[in-house]
Amino acid sequence: MKRVRGTYGLRVTRAGIGSPFQILLLGCSFALAGYAGLRLLADDWLGVVLWFAGAALLHDLVLLPLYSLADRVLTRGTATVHRRERTSYVRFPAACSGLLLLVWFPLVGGRVDASYAGVTGLSAEGFLTRWLLITAVLFGGSALLLAGRLLRSATKRRSPDVH
Fold first, then answer.
1. CB of 128 closer than 8 Å to CB of 87
2. 4, 12 in Cβ contact below 8 A?
3. H-helix segments, 44-113
4. Is 93 buried (19+), middle (13-18) or exposed (0-12) by CB count in 10 A?
5. Which domain range does residue 100 map to?
6. Which of 31, 93, 104, 121 has its CA 20 to 30 A from that of 79?
7. Residue 91 and residue 139: Cα distance in Å, rounded?
8. Cα(131)–Cα(149) distance, rounded to whole angstroms?
9. Is-contact 93 138, C-beta < 8 A?
10. Which of 33, 61, 77 is the last residue of a domain?
């Protein structure tokens, strides 16, 4: 609920439901998700439900504590507030790389059988190399952004204030 100052200074409360375009877009996304869910559950609904439950438990009981601990170690290792702002330059590429590894783990780890090539018509070779390359680009880009930010702040400190 948003509070808006109305006529004569009265406070009017209105729901923040968004524009008609946002509502239409949200409705379309729910329809697409529903269609995909029905198609997914059509063949092996018990296996899909067990997979989702197992993935939720694995995430909540194993992965969340692990990456929370890694983030805690990263932020404790930086003593000042100025350095803690820089942890985002490690968090973002690490999160993206970890998510890519999580999604593509069987292919990155080389744990696919011959049926993968038969079903997709693609080779399972090279996924480890591509993942490592994407990870290097993510961390390299983040390092360049941090270097640019540090260079910009250093030049601002050196330039005299003209008033």
1. no
2. yes
3. 45-58, 64-76, 81-85, 88-103, 105-108
4. buried
5. 79-157
6. 93
7. 10
8. 27
9. yes
10. 77
Residue 162 in any domain: the answer is: no
Q: Determine the Cα–Cα distance for residues 48 and 38; give it in Å rounded to an integer.
A: 11
Same domain (yes/no): 89, 130: yes
CA distance from start to end of the chain: 44
Angle separating helix axes 45-58 and 20-43, nearest 10 degrees? 110
Picking from 28, 32, 12, the residue whose alpha carbon sits closest to that of residue 20 is: 28
Structure tokens at 22: 């946002």
* Residue 29 and residue 85 in one domain: no
Q: Tell whether 163 is covered by a domain.
A: no
> Length of the chain, please?
163
| Contact criterion met (CB below 8 Å) for 7 and 19 | no
Q: Is the domain of 85 the same as that of 140?
A: yes
What's the pLDDT at 71? 81
| Structure tokens, 154 | 């250093």
pLDDT (tens, 9 = 90+) of the chain, 163 residues, equals 555 565 566 565 556 677 889 999 999 999 999 998 888 888 888 888 898 899 899 989 998 999 888 888 877 766 666 666 778 888 899 999 999 998 888 888 887 877 777 788 888 788 999 999 999 999 999 999 999 998 998 887 776 665 5
